[in-house]
From TrEMBL:
This is EF-hand domain-containing protein. Gene3D superfamilies: EF-hand. It comes from the Eukaryota. It holds the Pfam family EF-hand_5. The keyword Ribonucleoprotein does not apply.
Amino acid sequence: MGGSFSSATLDDATVAMIKHKTRMKSSEVTEWFNELKSRCPNGKMTKKDMLKCYRDLSTCDMDKLEHVVNAIYKTFDTDNDGKVDFKEFVIGFLLTTKGTMEEKLDYTFQIYDIDKDGYIDQSEIDVMAKYVLRMLGGNGNEFESIELLKHFISSCHCNEQGLITKENFIRALSKNELLSQLLSPFT
């Protein structure tokens, strides 16, 4: 939707929206569009394409990203059409690589909020634990990781239903660099 790579040109509304969200110049948006169009001429970015772009264009921890690529892909697909288009990728990529800590943690929250209800519940916490263990590669730190995750959950001040809000998630990770590095592929 709006901004397919295969389009001959970018419309002004897409350029303006990307500029606003990412603080890019119009010329930079055009450069990104042309680069991504050359990589994905059909306009559909696959998970493999997305990983390759991260590998080539960022300093993110690729080991972590590879373990959560499915969740990242779903998070970037903001219109839920099963594809990541130019606008979705550029905004997601730039905010997760060059954005503020809060923007990066916002995307991290979206990865773990699987049902997109604005909260992280117990089943999503279980998935979070699995992601963390996969990101660590089963290197013997599993017990320590689970303990850190339990500490994180207790520091999030869950609401009365035991749900973690985005605000509490971001606040808790902002205060703990180790947890932020453990739970976010972007920090």
